[in-house]
Design brief:
The chain is an alpha/beta fold. The protein contains 8 helices and 5 strands, in the order αααβββαβαβααα. Helices cover about 50% and strands about 15% of the residues.
Length: about 230
């Protein structure tokens, strides 16, 4: 049985839709910036069309990326780096929790209104349900982590220390740049949706170029782009 074509009914081609979503989610650009870039390439669409496309297709692309990378995620059960960052929604402080593996892969993004034991436990359970339980949890000294890990019987797996959690701290930077371009968020649901999509797209194109020669980096980048162009194809 063939899958229904998700691009059916749209006037623009799937290639243009994929390109617009990739540019908007991957790079710190506004909707109008993407509109201008596509105009230079002869594509006449409005910034509201770009907004519609990323909301419609962003979660679909992110889901397919996660499915294709599931085999390579088995090593993610070795060491997790957990951290939370402040995000303003309509002037109110919320918290975006992130779990990152030892290779910099963003495993999970989760938004809460607080950072107490209850919120930490909910975040941990959601992440472990999808990725299993790691051997080591690297965290900062927030007491909520210790209380939540104690409740799930993993207190002996926690590690804290200066600079140990730099992997998680650095993973916040691409999202911070993206947040400034979007002039922050207005709803918790929108933040959760975009954070999940952004994490998957960042994982897909993050080549960690400092670990490879220039030739290998170009090959990996070309492969990632070719795979992106095949997402949700019939």
């Amino acid at each position: 049985m063939t899958k229904p074509d998700p691009f059916k009914g749209f006037q623009n081609s799937p290639e243009i839709i994929r390109l617009a979503v990739m540019i908007y989610v991957r790079f710190p650009l506004s909707l109008r910036n993407v509109e201008d870039l596509l105009h230079e390439r002869g594509v006449e669409i409005s910034h509201e069309t770009v907004r519609c496309w990323w909301r419609r297709f962003g979660p679909m692309f992110a889901s397919e990326i996660r499915k294709r990378r599931i085999e390579g995620m088995r090593s993610s059960q070795w060491r997790w780096h957990l951290d939370e960052m402040f995000v303003k929604i309509n002037g109110e402080r919320h918290y975006l929790w992130r779990a990152v593996d030892h290779e910099g892969e963003v495993l999970e993004s989760f938004v809460t209104k607080s950072r107490d034991k209850k919120a930490t436990l909910k975040f941990l359970k959601k992440t472990m349900k999808r990725h299993g339980r790691p051997h080591v949890f690297v965290t900062d000294k927030l007491r909520s982590y210790g209380a939540a890990l104690k409740e799930i019987g993993a207190a002996d797996r926690q590690e804290t220390g200066r600079w140990l959690n730099n992997r998680a701290e650095n993973s916040h930077l691409p999202f911070r740049r993206r947040e400034r371009a979007m002039l922050r968020f207005r709803r918790m649901r929108s933040l959760q949706k975009f954070a999940a999509v952004h994490s998957s797209v960042h994982n897909h194109f993050n080549q960690e170029r400092h670990l490879y020669s220039r030739e290998n980096f170009k090959l990996n980048r070309t492969a990632a782009l070719a795979e992106w162009r095949q997402l949700c194809s019939a």
